[in-house]
Amino acid sequence: MLFRISSCVIVFLVFTSFSYQYIFQKIAVDMETKTAVKGKAGKITATVYYSMDGKMISYYQEPLPMVVINTRKGEITMYNVRDNTISHQENYIFSTETNQLYYFLDNKKADLGLISMGYSILETTVQDGLKITRWKPPLNLRNEISTVEIVHEKGNPIYVAYFNQKKMPLKKIYFYNYTQVSEYISLPGVVTQINFNSPKDSSLMKTTYSNFKLNQAVEENKLDFKIPSDAKIIK
Prior knowledge:
By secondary structure, this protein is mostly beta strands. The chain has helices spanning 2-9, 100-105; strands at residues 26-37, 40-51, 56-62, 66-70, 75-80, 85-90, 120-127, 130-136, 147-153, 156-163, 169-180, 186-198, 201-214, 232-233. The relative contact order is 0.18.
């Protein structure tokens, strides 16, 4: 259960934009995620460290002490501190380029990565000072998704929703409590996601980010974690 939850909420950040590389050489952030699924509540806490080469190391405190290492290629290695065991997988869904916060740091908050996934704009409107864009999915996703809607306020996305072919929401994400991390970058302090699993069933995930550290303020040794040589491999 820990693997399923943590793979969804790990903050995958990568710093590939040339104009940002001198601002974000490395970053750290504390993360707390609370989930509610079918009446059951869960909580995950971690401190996450990133470097501009796409490497991410997450130190989990709850529900179990674990160290999770991700790369841009989608490699994920999980070290269970208590049992001294490791497991490894490789899939692009684990890439450090697949999380929402990555788009804020790579100057893609205007489309939240939709363009790179093959989406195209249907229309743009302005209502009560909010910019609203509607997007059409690529052909390979049109059986599941009809449109995506993004709402921006003062240049920052505050809401995104995915709709199925019946115009019913599949997922809604809210971004708020923005933190000015640097002169040029603001990041949401809270991200709340609602997944509509069926017309009568939904799940909630609320992630809070705090204690942002940049560059020299980040402990260098945290990015150099080495898995003990005697750790047992679990396949």
